[in-house]
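User: Predict the full complex structure for these chains.
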Amino acid sequence: MKVLITGFDPFGGEAMNPAYEAVKLLPDTIEGADIIKLEVPTVFGKSIQVLDEAMAKHQPDIVINIGQAGNRFGITPERVAINQDDARITDNEGNQPIDTVIVEEGQPAYFAKMPIKAIVENIKKAGIPAQVSNTAGTFVCNHLMYGLLNLIDTKYPQVRGGFIHVPFATEQVIDRPTSPSLTLEQIAKGLEIAVATTITTHDDIQVQGGAIS
Amino acid sequence: MKVLITGFDPFGGEAMNPAYEAVKLLPDTIEGADIIKLEVPTVFGKSIQVLDEAMAKHQPDIVINIGQAGNRFGITPERVAINQDDARITDNEGNQPIDTVIVEEGQPAYFAKMPIKAIVENIKKAGIPAQVSNTAGTFVCNHLMYGLLNLIDTKYPQVRGGFIHVPFATEQVIDRPTSPSLTLEQIAKGLEIAVATTITTHDDIQVQGGAIS
Amino acid sequence: MKVLITGFDPFGGEAMNPAYEAVKLLPDTIEGADIIKLEVPTVFGKSIQVLDEAMAKHQPDIVINIGQAGNRFGITPERVAINQDDARITDNEGNQPIDTVIVEEGQPAYFAKMPIKAIVENIKKAGIPAQVSNTAGTFVCNHLMYGLLNLIDTKYPQVRGGFIHVPFATEQVIDRPTSPSLTLEQIAKGLEIAVATTITTHDDIQVQGGAIS
Amino acid sequence: MKVLITGFDPFGGEAMNPAYEAVKLLPDTIEGADIIKLEVPTVFGKSIQVLDEAMAKHQPDIVINIGQAGNRFGITPERVAINQDDARITDNEGNQPIDTVIVEEGQPAYFAKMPIKAIVENIKKAGIPAQVSNTAGTFVCNHLMYGLLNLIDTKYPQVRGGFIHVPFATEQVIDRPTSPSLTLEQIAKGLEIAVATTITTHDDIQVQGGAIS
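Assistant: Here is the predicted structure of the four-chain assembly.
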């Protein structure tokens, strides 16, 4: 089995992105599956293209995208991606779409195709804060999650996957005295558990009304 | 023109619900339109039935549902409702659906059919905190918003509308020293502005990819 | 009876200071006492001089200083002032003392000489959030509170008084989506209750170990 | 050189106290000094007695007390202790003093006798959040800090020391989704740096108006 796991490059003036920094700390195999690590650009459009090319090349069974959500307290698998870009700041190439669709004629939203509640439970059992999130926002994170699930829907129907937001790494909050954080080691451990949980539930995932839980 | 505006009854152990308390403070006409006020039960299923009956009876041009979102800082029009119930607590009749669809074969999500960004701008101009929200949660608030937009989609295509979450009223936070609040008067003023904004933009709303902004 | 109540002028880039704006809204008499309102400069040293001159001129029975504490959720009477200035930003005349004493050979701290817990209880009974605070910080607010209590200790032993921090007014947080606030009317009502409570308990205040509660 | 470092036992319903758990992780020598670790009871009165006995027995050069301050984001050396107990909850033996003095005829407050700003800077340089705090509260933490500084003032004038509050350990916030935390390893590392900083500045501490900075 192959797992493709992506992390964004830094954006919004940050010196690092804990998403890809944590991805880099993952082992090369988890539960016997090969782990393919990929940095993706924080750019509308291009992030989905890079993902599509990597899925075509590696033919993974599972794809999980990781992004930074500053000011969240724990690791938060996303429940749903919506078909809308609405950027408060520019992306890394200066794009700032306002209230535009991601995929013309695309369905309004996609629910995650991985066991988000089991992931949360298993991460918490390991002593790391985690919660289901009901919004991935309207910036490049939601954009890529929607893109992934649209690719699964239209081109790679056998693939499972979704998106996980992670908080700031502790290094990032030294001069932000009211921002929560986790260590990169905690974030990486949480992601490893998320991957393992998705692998081990791969064959018996329950799909209810489009949502997997 | 007729505007139907609803507010939930108290739930979750609260003595009051600022949603309907603020609705009660609204004037009977706004921008020349008749304002019809309706309390709806915080109950899965029944809340949509009550709304459907009121829409059939009053034939409103605009419908806006109001709900409480404790710990939010401002008035927050919702961008999107998702086709999923997932209740952390029971509703007022003991129901607690977990990861179930609201409408079988319903589309995954609906975007608000009212000008949520213009509403936010106008409320802020009046000196009251407001923001667009990207999630109405997965409790009865999202349920009713999805129900409303599904009714519009399937039975009342000429109707405009959506959902607005309001914070705790100040009375509710006296013994919650770290919970934000607004006064009921501020909330009511914000809702009046939301109604007026929706009325005055009624004829020239831009629809982009399903979302109105 | 005479009550002198002061509020600072705006500082730190704010367009207004809710402290003096709320003081201006107070009635001219409370519980039969004359209310003397005074704006004081947010300046180390000068703020105490202005206060001293006003106390010499008006000979008040009670003196209460009001200051802004952004990001507090309620009205917060201060328990204690410490003999130390330590400024993170400059005051309104460019002074920025770091770890210096306010009064040479002054005692390390003074406890409030007004009934801070009764004030909190009475403000809460009126439906307005309030809490005792254990620190007035180390900027001009603590400086003036220490100065007041030192003046009482050394020159005006019959006077009662203290310091109350108030949160941002709602107008100030429109573009600070995670900052709490109260309306100026709520703040003024809270201050009126604080003054009334101090007047009515004036004769039977319990002093325990230097602290009044 | 000898350093006595104390941590409280669990209180307030917590299963652990990160203060003493982190103290246990400290090395046995820091900068050549012997580290003596002591668990103290979260009890008014008794905590000071236990400290006094340990100081008499070990004759330390430096004493630092560690306590838990839930919902703080970083490691926070305290600037000042005040001569007042005011307990919102009972201590571990059922005591709940309200507005009482700690030491009859004791001075109103004591400033820390260790370099709190250098400690903060050094902890931050190591990538761990830290800030100076201006209040240790009015529960057993402030009580013990006042007790320590009073013992130094009256019996052990050559001793340096103070109090440091630490946030929840990550294990404690798994079911508190909006509480910040640090890992025990981060807390222990921060405390080690605090001890090292106090040792290395021992001979040239600047005392200004009673406060050390």
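The beta strands of chain A are 2-8, 29-30, 33-40, 62-68, 76-77, 80-82, 109-111, 160-166, 207-208, 211-212.
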